[in-house]
Amino acid sequence: MTKVVLDLQYGIPFNLYEDELLGAVILSLYCDARGVEADGSVGRGWWADGLTERDRWGSRLWELIRSKDIPETLRIAEDYAKAALSWIVDDGVASNVSVMAYSPKRTVLGLLVKIDNHSINLEVANALRP
Predict the structure, then answer these.
(1) What phi-psi label fits residue 43: left (phi over 0), alpha (psi between -120 and 50 degrees) or beta?
(2) Which residues share a beta bridge with 123?
(3) Distance between CA 64 and CA 107 in Å, rounded?
(4) What is the pLDDT of residue 75?
(5) Predicted local distance difference test score (pLDDT) of residue 33
(6) Exposure check for the chain: N or C terminus, fewer CB within 10 A?
């Protein structure tokens, strides 16, 4: 199992992209996909997502930064992460992807990602508000 601990205040170290699968997972989860802001407007994310019907980039995990209801937030985080990683199965890179979200500390979002026989444990500090 690969374990990665990140702090969003400092960015993602480039050496994590040396492992192709880990790099693809990190980019898929921590690049911002289009979403909806609290006021109902189109949220941040990659502008070119609006130009295609098929491929989407990133995840909506960024929307959870304001969340405080941890059990509900973890359920939503799992849904967002599964959606962001669905391309791995769709493109035939792997046959199975599963995600389990957890919170080891008040401001940390953990994601246990299983892709076929690979396990990646990601913990991201400053991902949830206390």
Answers:
(1) beta
(2) 5, 110
(3) 11
(4) 96
(5) 83
(6) C
Q: Which residues of 58-95 are buried (b: 16+ CB within 10 A; e: fewer)?
A: bbbbbbbeebeeeeebbebbbebbbebbebbeeeeeee
Q: What is the pLDDT of residues 31-64, one digit of tens each?
A: 888 776 777 776 677 666 666 666 667 888 888 8
| The token pair that represents 53 in the structure block | 């019907």
108 and 124 in contact (C-beta within 8 Å)? yes
Structure tokens at 38: 């609290």
Amino acid letter, 56 = R
Closest CA to 109 of 84, 85, 126: 126
